[in-house]
Amino acid sequence: MAFRTLSALLLAIATARLTSASLTKRVTCPTGQTTANAACCVLFPILTDIQANLFDGGECGEEVHESLRLTFHDAIGFSPSKGGGGADGSIFYFDEVETAFPANNGIDDIVDAQTPFINKYNITAGDFIQFAGAVGVSNCPGAPRLEFLLGRPKATAASPPGLVPEPQDSITSIPGPIRRCWFLARRGGGLAGFISYILRSHSIAAADHVDPTIPGTPFDSTPGIFDTQLFIETQLRGVLFPGTGGNTGEAESPLRGEIRLDSDALLARDSRTACTWQSFAVGQANLQAKFRAAMSKMAIIGHNRANMVDCSDVIPVPKPVVGTPHLPAGKTMNDIEQACATAPFPSLTADPGPATSVPPVPPS
Q1: Is 220 annotated as a binding residue?
Q2: Is there a binding annotation on residue 90?
Q3: How far apart are CA 44 and CA 40, in angstroms?
Q4: Residue 61 marked ligand-binding
Q5: Cβ–Cβ < 8 Å for 328, 237
Q6: Are the C-beta atoms of residues 351 and 328 closer than 8 Å to each other?
Q7: Reduced to 3 states, what is the DSSP secondary structure of residue 187?
Q8: Which own/partner pairs from 271-277 qualify as long-range (CB within 8 Å, at least 24 positions apart)?
Q9: Does 86 count as an annotated binding residue?
Q10: 209 labelled as ligand-binding?
Q11: pLDDT tens across 217-254, in order?
């Protein structure tokens, strides 16, 4: 009896070791890197190329900001009733149609920048757009390492108009198809997932076309760092106004050199979202987790995860966040406009020195 028990135990141990070995087995690619799946080997030459020639040697700069924006604008073009294939690269294959949508103003610049790379490599535009976004984000300190799944088919039709939210949209004014994607995000990660889903790029972004007279204007004071400053600085007291040159969705920021969108300011103050917004003010780990989960869902809108190959191990690991949550120089807690009804805004100290202007993000 004891012998049988020992034999069963040894068999269980051997099986566990074999299973563990199969799960950790690595494939060595022709380029020398290793990955869990041979299908992912095609990505390493692309990774090297875009880091050097699209992202300026691995910087968290303008091309990263715009590549991240493109992941959203391509993927969100999906509606069960109106059509659209989601994250399928249609914004590349049908660029003359989709770049003309008002909400896609200025997106043609990054489409043009990525076109030579898409044409150079044997992956679809849908895969390239999401891969470039994930790689670009990895250049920003404080960002999570994003998931990347390979296997999106080529788009067969353009996305219908009206599916991409605009800067002046509030929760209630977001078009019906966008609300459906919002509820999709809520089922996957709650309201916090939706907020990080919509605003993920504003922490590491600058506006070129919201107000064309001030290109390169950042949304927060640390556009090269994936941190929580957006959720602090948007809560500073400011004045909403309808914008210039029509309803651009621009709101007055209390920080010189910084731009604020109506949609951001309203989300920060709406009773339905204010407490969730506030939860990110000092919640770096929470923001990272929610952002990664929301991006994972967004990046495969219109596709079946079971039909795709997980190549997440190709994405570089980002550096840790730089700095800690703080008020900008010259501000105090009295400048915070409390909006959450159930919890006070976290107590923060300000950077030393007098108030300064936030510098613009230089073009690539």
Answers
A1: yes
A2: yes
A3: 8
A4: no
A5: no
A6: yes
A7: helix
A8: 271/339, 271/341, 272/171, 272/191, 273/171, 273/191, 273/195, 274/339, 274/340, 274/341, 275/340, 275/341, 275/342, 275/343, 276/191, 276/192, 276/195, 277/195, 277/231, 277/234, 277/235, 277/339, 277/340
A9: yes
A10: no
A11: 787 888 889 999 999 999 998 754 443 333 444 556 67
Q: Say whether 73 is catalytic.
A: yes
Distance CA 283, CA 195 (A): 13
Query: What is the torsion angle, in degrees rounded to the nearest 10, for the CA atoms of residue 256, residue 362, residue 317 and residue 228?
Result: 10
What is the tens place of the pLDDT at every residue in 169-188? 455 554 444 444 444 444 44
Instruction: Tell me: is residue 270 an annotated ligand-binding position.
Output: no
Count CB neighbours of 116 within 10 A. Answer: 12
CB 236 within 8 A of CB 337: yes
- Take residue 167 and report the two structure tokens written for it: 């800067």
Q: Exactly one of 65, 73, 303, 326 is catalytic; which is it?
A: 73
pLDDT tier at 268 (50, 70, 90 boundaries)?
Answer: confident
b/e map of 200-216 (b: 16 or more CB within 10 Å)?
bbbbbbbbbebbeeebb
Whole-angstrom Cα distance, residue 173 to residue 24? 48
Position of tokens 């209630």? 172
> Could you give all domains of the chain from N- to C-terminal order, each with its CATH number?
36-335 (1.10.520.10)
The CA-atom distances, in angstroms, between 258 and each of 5, 248, 252, 357 are 70, 16, 9, 8
pLDDT band at 291 (very low <50, low <70, confident <90, very high): confident
Instruction: Please tell me whether 222 is known to bind a ligand.
Output: yes
Which ranges constitute the DSSP H helices of 83-175? 90-93, 95-98, 108-120, 125-137
3-state secondary structure of 285: helix
